[in-house]
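In response to the reviewer comment on reproducibility (Comment 2.3), we provide here a single inverse folding case reported in full, input and output, so that an independent group could reproduce the run without further information from us. The structure tokens appear first.
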């Protein structure tokens, strides 16, 4: 079949190839070919990117007078088409950590210079991912040094950004919204469904992003771009790929991965597969004794037995496995049309909710089992791009997407026979239509529309494990539908060469229909309907007084519309509390301001500083509630305080992010990132309480060295203390995950760990990587996390490239 496609492509499009010209982009210092370099025609605004061999077809730019060659970490170059011919189609780029002209796509969904944006964007490149070798997509986000990660179990990762987390942050994959109608306010782990080996680039847009992305984009937008099929520039098929294996000692990780790209002139295919096997995670030797795992539960002779843990540093049970598959097909009918279909599938084994399994009650474990069932995610995504000079657009992109999500919770009290299984499935459909138009030399317009539809199915099953007889139980959610229809417009205007003004508006309709089963809980309603709208906007200004200075400010708003999790769930948030549905919710709004400054000194130092303030109004928070006039009900065999999500509070958060990069010369470099935030929210009584997701200060400092074959990085990760008096009430209610201070109160200690990563390339085809994480074997638990982080961890991997 592939041979037939190849012959068909050659026969049909051979004539077009006769005029193609292929340029090769290389690193000036190492002569290494550079993948994903952008060649941008400043007049037509069209661009191409280089493939794995550092090559791109630039025949469409014939006679161009200004071609800009740009790549993250390298100095940009301006070339004419004639100059490229004179240089025999070879362009050398000079490394530079100081560039302010990185290309990003997440802020507007179209490629833009970072120096043109009023919003702060962090970029995590493929090169960084390769060197630091993260185990999961959650760990990948921490590579930036600007994202704090919470984990309740090994199979998880819930980012905290600028005081917000969970459903107040938005995930996108290849431009598609991943957030669905059951994204909850509690910690989530959906990010681990993504395969770090299939991710080409990650961008984090800080602050509100609702103008472009709609609901949930309050604290940040995390945009993941997966591997793109690469085409061949001549009759010869382009075949490339990677095979990878890794072992980590702290959890006996065994990971294997393979990907292969088969490219023709008009067709291209890329396939990726990864399998991960993680054992129980071992914590460090030096730290609070409260973190040790002294017992675990086993079922022996039909009885739950608390077993003494012979190795208290081993967190039992925390192991799990995961499989990721990806298949993409690209097709170019001509230079103006691009088609790409992507299939993604991810499935984990069941994995234990570790923080629940360390709770005791009356001297015994509270739970005999508490775990998440297999987490499954499937996505079909068709993207069609058209480039043409039209009255209303120069570029248009259409995305048609279908996603399926499945997750479940399985719990059973200690020495109880009733096992409760709650399963949720979401079918999500979305359509995105995005346009860009160059109105004049100094004015660009971006606009579009988005429609999202989610169907939620929730079931409950109770099983008597002594008889293995099952019967229907209460579901976590009502069966429901949620939809959103949004329209946006954004404009970028350049004043002279120093000023850029960005404005944007979005109007969004949203609906929710839920039907409640009152068989198990006597709700005073059987259905809930929400039909409302939300409005958001932004205005930003960028000032470039000279090449070495960049100043910007941005004012923006964002919203989060109530979803099925907010309106309809029933669950135990913590022992003695039960959350019940509230069908009277409205959208919450955030209002944000940013001020940023960036300065380069000579050719060797860059300093960046961003300050921000966000006000959250009409916030959806968990508060005490009544059900049929009762403030307490019996839930899971325990008298529990009734609570519900309500529009009952305001919150604010402020802080700053700063970074320094220094080129020390001869391949050596230094960089550091530091993040500080403070926040508070209203309580029932009107008093203020620390904002739960406002993390302690944290950061990363790195020393690096690189040459043609060898790369190394020695770096430190660190975080500040959260004293008892600074702890939110919701965290004080979970003393089992915290250390104990000298007064007997829970608190989160500061921590500082050292790491080293190296890689060495053999003969261009083989890359050996090794590293030691947490060199001092510190026992530490990041703020709000339910699981203790890995102790000293030895990592080795081998990557072969074809």
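Designed residues, in position order:
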């Amino acid at each position: 079949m592939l041979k037939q496609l190849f012959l068909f492509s050659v026969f049909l499009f051979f004539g077009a190839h006769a005029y193609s010209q292929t340029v090769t982009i290389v690193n000036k210092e190492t002569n290494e070919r550079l993948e994903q370099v952008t060649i941008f025609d400043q007049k037509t605004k069209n661009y191409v990117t280089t493939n794995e061999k550092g090559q791109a077809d630039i025949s469409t730019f014939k006679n161009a007078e200004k071609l800009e060659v740009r790549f993250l970490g390298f100095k940009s170059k301006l070339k004419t088409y004639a100059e490229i011919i004179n240089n025999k189609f070879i362009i050398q780029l000079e490394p530079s950590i100081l560039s302010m002209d990185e290309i990003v796509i997440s802020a507007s969904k179209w490629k833009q210079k970072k120096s043109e944006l009023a919003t702060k964007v962090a970029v995590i490149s493929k090169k960084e991912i390769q060197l630091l070798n993260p185990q999961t997509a959650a760990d990948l986000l921490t590579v930036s040094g600007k994202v704090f990660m919470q984990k309740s179990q090994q199979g998880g990762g819930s980012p905290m950004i600028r005081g917000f987390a969970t459903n107040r942050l938005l995930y996108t994959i290849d431009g598609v919204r991943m957030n669905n109608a059951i994204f909850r306010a509690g910690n989530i782990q959906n990010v681990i469904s993504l395969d770090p080996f299939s991710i080409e680039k990650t961008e984090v847009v800080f602050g509100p992003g609702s103008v472009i992305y709609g609901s949930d984009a309050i604290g940040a937008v995390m945009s993941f771009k997966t591997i793109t099929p690469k085409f061949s520039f001549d009759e010869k098929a382009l075949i490339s790929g990677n095979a990878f294996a890794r072992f980590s000692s702290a959890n006996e990780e065994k990971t294997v991965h393979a990907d292969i790209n088969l490219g023709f002139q008009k067709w291209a295919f890329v396939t990726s597969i990864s399998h991960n096997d993680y054992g129980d995670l071992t914590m460090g030797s030096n730290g609070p004794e409260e973190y040790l795992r002294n017992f675990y539960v086993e079922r022996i002779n039909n009885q739950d037995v608390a077993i003494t843990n012979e190795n208290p540093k081993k967190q039992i049970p925390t192991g799990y496995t995961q499989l990721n598959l990806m298949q993409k097909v690209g097709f170019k009918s001509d230079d103006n049309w691009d088609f790409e279909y992507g299939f993604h599938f991810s499935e984990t084994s069941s994995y234990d909710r570790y923080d629940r399994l360390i709770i005791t009650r009356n001297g015994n474990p509270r739970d005999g089992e508490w775990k998440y069932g297999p987490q499954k995610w499937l996505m079909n995504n068709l993207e069609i791009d058209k480039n043409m000079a039209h009255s209303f657009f120069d570029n248009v992109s259409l995305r048609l997407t279908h996603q399926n999500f499945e997750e479940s919770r399985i719990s059973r009290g200690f020495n109880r026979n009733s096992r409760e299984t709650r399963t949720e499935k979401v079918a999500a459909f979305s359509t995105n239509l995005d346009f860009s138009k160059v109105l004049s030399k100094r004015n660009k317009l971006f606009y579009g529309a988005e429609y999202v539809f989610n169907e939620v199915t929730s079931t409950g099953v109770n099983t008597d494990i002594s008889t293995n007889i099952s019967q229907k139980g209460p579901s976590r959610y009502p069966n429901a539908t949620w939809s959103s229809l949004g329209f946006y417009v954004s404009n970028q205007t350049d004043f002279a060469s120093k000023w850029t003004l960005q404005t944007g508006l979005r109007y969004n309709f949203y609906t929710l229909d839920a039907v409640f089963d009152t068989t198990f809980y006597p709700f005073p309603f059987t259905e809930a309907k929400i039909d409302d709208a939300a409005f958001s906007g932004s205005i930003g200004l960028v000032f470039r007084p000279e090449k070495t200075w960049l100043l910007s400010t941005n004012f923006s708003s964002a919203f989060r519309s109530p979803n099925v999790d907010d309106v309809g769930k029933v669950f135990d948030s913590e022992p003695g509390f039960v959350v019940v549905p509230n069908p009277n919710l409205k959208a919450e709004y955030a209002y944000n301001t940013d001020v940023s400054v960036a300065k380069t000194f000579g050719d060797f130092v860059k300093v960046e500083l961003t300050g921000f303030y966000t006000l959250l109004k009409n916030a959806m928070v968990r508060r005490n509630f009544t059900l049929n006039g009762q403030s307490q009900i019996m839930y899971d065999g325990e008298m529990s305080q009734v609570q519900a999500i309500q529009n009952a509070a305001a919150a604010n958060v402020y802080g700053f992010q700063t970074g320094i990069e220094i080129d020390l010369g001869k391949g050596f470099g230094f960089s550091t990132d530091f993040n500080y935030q403070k926040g508070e929210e209203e309580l029932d009584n009107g008093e203020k309480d620390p904002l739960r997701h406002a993390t302690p200060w944290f950061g990363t400092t790195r020393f690096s060295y690189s040459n043609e074959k060898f790369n190394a990085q020695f770096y430190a990760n660190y975080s500040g203390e959260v004293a008892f008096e600074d702890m939110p009430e919701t965290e004080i209610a979970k003393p089992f995950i915290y250390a104990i201070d000298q007064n007997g109160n829970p608190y989160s200690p500061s921590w500082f760990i050292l790491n080293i990563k190296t890689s060495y390339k053999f003969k261009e085809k083989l890359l050996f990587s090794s590293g030691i994480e947490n060199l001092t074997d510190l026992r530490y638990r990041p703020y709000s996390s339910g699981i203790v982080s890995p102790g000293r961890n030895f990592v080795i991997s081998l990557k072969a490239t074809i």
